[in-house]
Amino acid sequence: MKKVDNVSFGSRGFYSLQVIDCNGNVKENKNTLPTTNVVTYAGAFYSLISSSLFGNLYAALGTGTVERTKSSINLDNEDAGRSSNDTADRAGNEVDNGDGTSTLTLVRTMSFGLGAKVGTFSEVGLFSSSSGGTFIAGQLLKNDQGDPTTITLLSDEQLFVTYTLEWVVPNTSKLVGTGSVTDAASNTYSYEVWAQPYFYKYTVGNTDVDNRYFPLRGGFDNLVYTKADGTTKAGVGTQGVTWNNPTHDGAGNVTISTSDFTASPSDGTFTDVTFMGFVTDNPNFYYEIIDTVNVLVSSDLFRPTIVVKFLQPVTKTSDDSFSIRVSVDLVLS
């Protein structure tokens, strides 16, 4: 297959700090305006692929002096003890960019207990756990001129850290590959591979937060297909297929593949097939799903990551076996 494009995700982040004394007075001289920080490759991978954008996150402080980069895996010199956790949701925080992507803005405010942090600190970060975990984002503290600075916290003061994370995710289908395949009878079929939107329910601002790229959603037991006349069928094949664990090179490149899906001669037949996808075999799922105009999945209940479009309709008889594997390349930036 020839790769036409990647599925790309963008990210950036900001932080601001607020200090309050034991009487509830805001220490204006210690507050910071929203300042750009680095969203790490590991943090983007954790949030977008291997876990959840909406999971609980924790703030941390440090005393380091080295700028963080996308390849960083921790603060330069983290101070022990992290904040309370906080989470966010999708509804009301997603904006359609008009180019096939949405920007999702997630704001979290985390607090350290009164007197929990005492001393002078120079960096702040966001983690996936109360200890250890993945370094999502962080940076040195900066003043209004963008130069490194510090903050000094006293025993009668409490620190609040507000993090803003912005993620750019696909909200429509996208052509990511083309190719051709020849069957045992020497018939050649050209095809296109279309990645689906990031969220299962891709209407902008929907409350559903499940995404298609999480690799452990479970197996797929049937091949769903749309015939050339537009009718949709399901039920070919009984061999489950699962997404393999995604590989991440630490520099923003991720690959997810399925195991082979194979339908034996006795597993079923199809004729004049133009679109294909996988579906979980469950009574709660239905199959009238593939929009043959937009190459989108129009059902919220059928949740493939990839749809394959054949430019020459494919037929499988009771004498044929059929096998397919799909792969997705993701780029985190």
Write the layout of secondary structure elements.
Layout: E1 2-3, E2 7-21, E3 35-39, H1 41-50, E4 57-62, E5 85-86, E6 94-96, E7 101-111, E8 119-121, E9 123-127, E10 135-140, E11 151-153, E12 157-170, E13 174-182, E14 188-195, E15 222-227, E16 232-236, E17 247-248, E18 253-257, E19 261-263, E20 270-279, E21 290-291, E22 296-297, E23 306-316, E24 322-324, E25 327-332
What fraction strand?
35-45%
List unreliable stretches of 5+ residues.
none
Please state the CA-atom Rg, rounded to the nearest Å.
24 Å
* Proportion in helices: under 10%
| Total strands | 25
Structural class, please? mainly beta
Shape: elongated
Order of helices and strands: EEEHEEEEEEEEEEEEEEEEEEEEEE
- Count, helices: 1
How many structural domains are formed by the residues?
2
Ends: how far apart?
25 Å
Q: What summary fits the major beta sheet? A: 12 strands, mixed
On the 0-100 scale, what is the average pLDDT? 87
Quick structural overview:
The chain has one helix and 25 strands. With 333 residues, the protein is mostly beta strands.
Q: Which properties best describe this structure?
A:
333 residues, seven-stranded antiparallel β-sheet, mainly beta
Write a structural description:
- The chain has 333 residues and is mainly β.
- It has two domains: 168 residues, no CATH class; 161 residues, no CATH class.
- It is 3% helix and 44% strand.
- It has one helix and 25 strands.
- Strands 2, 3, 4, 5, 6, 7, 9, 10, 12, 17, 18 and 25 form a twelve-stranded mixed beta sheet that branches.
- Strand 13 and strand 14 form a beta hairpin.
- The longest helix has 10 residues.
- The two termini are 25 Å apart.
